[in-house]
Amino acid sequence: MIQGDHAAEADFRAFHPEYEDDSLRLQERGNPPNERSYRLYSEEDGVTWFHTEVSNVVLAAFQRYPRVLQTSHDKPMSEAPDDHTVDVAYSVYAGQARKHVAIGEFKRGLIARKEWQHGRLTTAPQNSLSQELRG
Predict the structure, then answer these.
(1) Of 49, 44, 54, 53, residue with least CA distance to 108
(2) What's the superkingdom here (predicted)?
(3) What are the pLDDT digits (tens) for 71-130?
(4) What are the φ and ψ backbone dihedral angles of 90, each rounded to 5 degrees?
(5) How confident is the model at residue 91, as a pLDDT?
(6) What DSSP state is assigned to residue 89?
């Protein structure tokens, strides 16, 4: 739903129903980010935008119930040594063990805008991305 020239309200009906603890998070205080301009010419510019405009705002609801830890360039949580890292990871503590709840990689030029906007994915990379996003 569009709210004026500069705001939109997302429709989350496609997602799973709320869990009982979601009502607790919805009561947490949150503040929008300060208004600012961005120059999105590099991958790192996009990373800065994401953390400022999305991640920091969402994490405000996860100070408790449970507390979510954000890390950058995090390695897999496994017993076997691994040199691979992800750009950003969000995790929670379950007892003494830390468990990832979401991980992310930032990519530049990954989405073919016209294909997605027209609803016709005609290239192999876009079809592959669509399958990956669906799990």
Answers:
(1) 44
(2) Eukaryota
(3) 998 887 776 677 788 889 999 998 888 998 888 888 777 888 888 888 889 999 888 888
(4) -120, 130
(5) 92
(6) E
Buried b (16+ CB within 10 A) or exposed e, 99-132: eeeeeeeeeeeeeeeebeeeeebeeeebeebeee
pTM above 0.70, yes or no: no
Q: Indicate the domain borders of the chain.
A: 110-135
Which residue is it, tokens 């992310």?
Answer: 104
Per the listing, tokens 């949580």 go with 77
- Residues 116 and 52: their CA atoms lie apart, in Å, by 25
CB 91 within 8 A of CB 98: yes
Contact yes or no for 43/106 (Cβ under 8 A): yes
pLDDT at 1: 52
Region of residue 134 (phi > 0: left; psi between -120 and 50: alpha; otherwise: beta) = alpha
